Amino acid sequence: MPALSSPTSKVLVTGPNGYIGLWVVKTLLDRGHTVRAAVRSETRAKDLKTLFSSAGNRLEFAIVEDMLKEGAFDEAVKGVDAIQHLASPIVGKAQTNEEYIRSAVDGTLEIFKSALKNGSTVKRIVTTSSTVAVWSVYDQEVKTFTELDWNEQDVAWVKDETKSFDHIAAYSASKTLAERAAWDFYNTHKQEVKWDIAFVLPSMVYGPSVHSYASPAELTGTQKTWWDGVVGEGKTKETLSQGANWVDVRDVAEAQVRALEREDAGNERFLVVAESYVWQEWLDLSNSALASLSPGSATRFSQGFSDIKNQVPTTFDTSKVKRILGITYRTKEETTKDVLAQAVKLGWI
C-alpha cells in the first residue's frame, strides 16, 4: 500500500486545535503539505487561521459540529490523500464509562466509515491512540510492554458493574476499545479500500505549545500537569517521587507525520515513548535551566529532595518506532529548557 509521498499532498486532520493536533498541523505545513482541518466551528477555524497565517490556501477547513453523528466526515474526507485522526475524549470531561467509550469508539468509526464511503483518494489513516491501550496505570508490575500487548485490565473494570466509576480506567478502556474497533473495521473492509492504517501510541506528552497562552492559568491537559508539577505549591517527598513515562509533543507530531510518509508504517502500531521520569528530575532540570535562561528572575522553584530515585517500574519497547520511523527522542533537558524559555518569553516567570 503506497504511503503519503507527494510534497503537496492534502491531509485531513481531526482535533487540530488540541495540544498534539496543533503540532501535527504545523509539522505537515512545514513539510509543504495542505491541511484540511476538521473543526467544530468557525471560531475554531479562525484560531487556526491566526496561528498559521503564513500557510495561505494550504490551510482549509471542514466544519464538523458533531463527530459522533452518522456521516459526520462524509464531505470532509473527499479528495484528501491521508487522514490524521487525533480527536478524542479528554480525561475528566466525560462522567460515565459509556460517555468515554462512545466518544472514542464512535468518533473513530465515523472517520473510517466515511473513508470507506467517500475516501477513494485516501492512502492511509493514522490514528492517535495511547500507551494506556497496552497498559493500565494501575498495573505496577515490573515489565516491558510492546505493541503486542493490550490493556485488558481497564476494559474488564468498566464492564464490571460492581466497580465504581473511575476517570482513568474509563479513558484507558475507551482508547483500547476504540483502537480495537478500528482494527476490526479495517480487517472487515480491507479488500474494499485502497488505504491502510497505523496507530501512534504516546505516553504522557510534555513540551512547549504552538499557541501562546496569556498565562499559565489557561493551560490544560498534560501541559497543565507539567507546569503544576514543577511550579505548583505543596510539593512533598511522596508527590516528587511519583512518575510515569513521557515523550516530547514535537516528537509525537513527527511520528504521526512519518507514519504517513513511510511505506512500511502501514498496518502497524507504534509505541512513542522517550523514557521514564519522577517529578524530582523535572524539578532539578528546571532549577538548572532557569538559572541560565533568566538569571535575574525572582522566580525560584522548590529544591525538593536530593535522595529521590527514579523507580518507575514500567518500560516500553520502542524499537519499532526507531527502526521504521527513525524517531530520535528529545531529552528531558531539551524539553525543560524549551518549555521554560517559552514561559520566560511570555512573561510568566
TrEMBL record:
The keyword Phosphoprotein does not apply. One of its GO terms (molecular function) is oxidoreductase activity, acting on the CH-OH group of donors, NAD or NADP as acceptor. InterPro entries: Epimerase_deHydtase, NAD(P)-bd_dom_sf, NAD(P)_dehydrat-like. It holds the Pfam family Epimerase. It comes from the Eukaryota. Transmembrane segments: none annotated. Signal peptide: none annotated. Keywords: Oxidoreductase. Residues 11-268 form the NAD-dependent epimerase/dehydratase domain. Belongs to the NAD(P)-dependent epimerase/dehydratase family. Dihydroflavonol-4-reductase subfamily. This is NAD(P)-binding protein. It comes from Coprinellus micaceus (Glistening ink-cap mushroom).
